[in-house]
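Incident review: delayed structure delivery

Summary: a single-chain prediction request sat in the queue longer than the usual turnaround. Root cause was a stuck worker, restarted by the on-call engineer. No data loss occurred. The affected request and its eventual output are reproduced below so the record is complete for anyone auditing the incident later.

Affected input:
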Amino acid sequence: MKKLISIPQVVIIATIVSVFVLVLSQAIKNDNNAKIQYVMKLQKSYLEFNEALTKLADDKGCPDDLQCTGLFEKGTTDKSFGDELVKYFKVKKNCGIEQHLGCFPKKTNENYNGLSPSFYDLDEWAGYRFITNDGMAYYVWNYAAGCTENDSTGATGELKNACGEIYVDINGPQKGPNCMGRDTYNFWISNGKGARLTPMGGIDTKWTEEDWRWKNANTGNPQRCYPGDRVGWPCAGRIIEEGWKMNY
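Output delivered after worker restart:
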């Protein structure tokens, strides 16, 4: 004769299931809240940096034209551009071109979920580094090629005139997770459609001669920054193109 589950056992099982569901629901809620906070900080950084580029160009007598400023010409440096740029931010710490002074993390995971770690020490690269009063860490790189670098797929032409790059860790070097696509993102400083940032992974992205859009234009299917490819470099493009949402 088949043994029936007793009422106390049913109660215990039901309790375990309900606790599991509650814990899972809270974990999902916490994850969603964290994503919302990441996106809000990213948007703040994006808007403030664009405002700084606009003001810098205006003050140089070059409205909406970074190439005209001369700050990216051959012979200029990360330092010469960075020293001009920081004037438009409230800066808590300025490391300039000095490495490993605490202005950027020594280890940044290229995977947005922190798994299968592939770390980059962005702070050892050539560039200009500073931390703003709101805790955002910036690394800025001047191509010093007169805003003539062409990293465009041809989709919009924004990156036909790239001037340099930036990386931003939106919660600073001391606070994790230090993962590309979570709290760390990269953009081009572009001049193809005016003085502005263009996100890595966006529709116009070509990087080292490869199509690096998060969504492949030929198939319409996500190719990067999604569970099948957790590399976070193109995630800024995905967040912006999906209406400032972190859907991954």
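Verification: The first strand starts at residue 91 and ends at 96.
Action items: add queue-age alerting; document worker restart procedure.
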